[in-house]
Amino acid sequence: MEKKKIKVLDFLSDPLCVTVEDGQKIFDLIQPEIANNVPLEVSFERIDLIISAFLNVAIGQLYGTFTEEKIGSLLSYSHLEEDDMELLRIVVANALRYYSNQENYDLAAQEVLEYA
């Protein structure tokens, strides 16, 4: 099957990947393709800034639905600077930790918020 390409900038109003809303737009494009086993390249060509909040939603939440192996076999990235690639690795590692023990993380967060 031919790899499909999603150019992130085509779906944003500017070259900044900084909001969870924009991250959700990208997630909503990626998720059904992964669900249908479509190989996918996510291109960050001409993107000037990427922050973890965007990546947590766009990429991190995929790990709540799909296995690491499935995502790794179908999803690739292009035009990411090395520091952005490192940020993506951190987001993925955090997502794997969170989704492997989601209930306990949510309970801990709830307790913290109750005492704040």
Q: Strand order across the biggest sheet?
A: 1-3-5
SS-based class: alpha/beta
Strand content: 5-15%
Please estimate the helix content.
40-55%
In short:
The protein has 116 residues and is of the alpha/beta class. It has helices at residues 20-35, 52-58, 68-74, 82-100, 102-115; strands spanning 4-7, 16-17, 40-43, 49-50, 75-78.
Would you write up a description of this structure?
There is one protein chain. This protein is an alpha/beta fold and 116 residues long. The protein has one domain. The protein is built from five helices and five strands, in the order ββαββααβαα. It has helices at 20-35, 52-58, 68-74, 82-100, 102-115; strands at 4-7, 16-17, 40-43, 49-50, 75-78. The strands form two sheets. The chain has a three-stranded parallel β-sheet. The chain has a two-stranded parallel sheet with strand order 2-4. Helix 1 (20-35) runs parallel beside helix 2. The longest helix is centred in the last third of the chain and has 19 residues, at 82-100. It is globular and about 50 Å long. The N and C termini lie far apart (51 Å).
